[in-house]
Amino acid sequence: MRKFAGLVVAAAMCLAMQASAQTPAQAPAQPKAGTAPKTGASAKPKTAAASPYDRALLRPALLKDKAPETYQVKFSTTRGDFTLTVTRAWAPIGADRFYNLVKHHFFDNASFFRVVPGFVAQFGLSAYPPVSAAWKTAVMKDDPVAQSNKKGYITFATAGAGTRTTQVFINLGDNSRLDPLPSGPFAPFGQVTEGLDVVNMLYSEYGDGPPQGRGPDQDQIEKQGKPYLDKGWPKLDVIQSATVVGEPAAPAAKKAPAAKAAPAPKNP
User: Fold this and answer.
1) What distance in Å separates the CA atoms of residue 113 and residue 96, rounded to the nearest whole number?
2) Domain with 147 in it: what CATH number?
């Protein structure tokens, strides 16, 4: 289903599993007499290819860390850097979800796939289809709307009650009309505190997605990932990294009181 103001995010990604014929395992070849199997530096063991994403993202149910009461996230993008300040009290459930996504680099290499001037800059679909598939049903409960959708405020996208997952948008104008929508609630959980000019300059010529504009289809982003965007919408700005910064320092451990010396035993 596509998300945001009545649009529903892509339904579950269909994975076609093809069965392959299995052949009996062959017995390992025996070394020739008088020769020993290769060991040491001459042997070249096979190594698994490194994953391009944090594999913890494939298990959303385990990413449940509680966020600090306030924290900042620095975004480095192809357009420049900007910083969000999140206030957990505004929308605790959303703030916790965003914190866990950032900690595990969910947004890295993802695109701002929907930028409509004066309205929203939307992102939060993974560059990697397996990650999108893992999160498509990881819905969270709604937060009450405690802040208005003012310019620079960030909010989770939703297609109705109880449908929030990973998509978020930054308001590029006063969108207070979104606050009371029955298809929401659209509950802001933070705001851009540095670099709002960068956000305003994100590439927007593609406009909205179909059928309203020439932008990419959210369903296909989920199914194909970044190669789909690179081919058809190469000018979209990309998140190079999103990192939690400015977390409060952990409190110093309290020193245990020094043990008192035991009194010497009295003589009878």
Assistant:
1) 23
2) 2.40.100.10
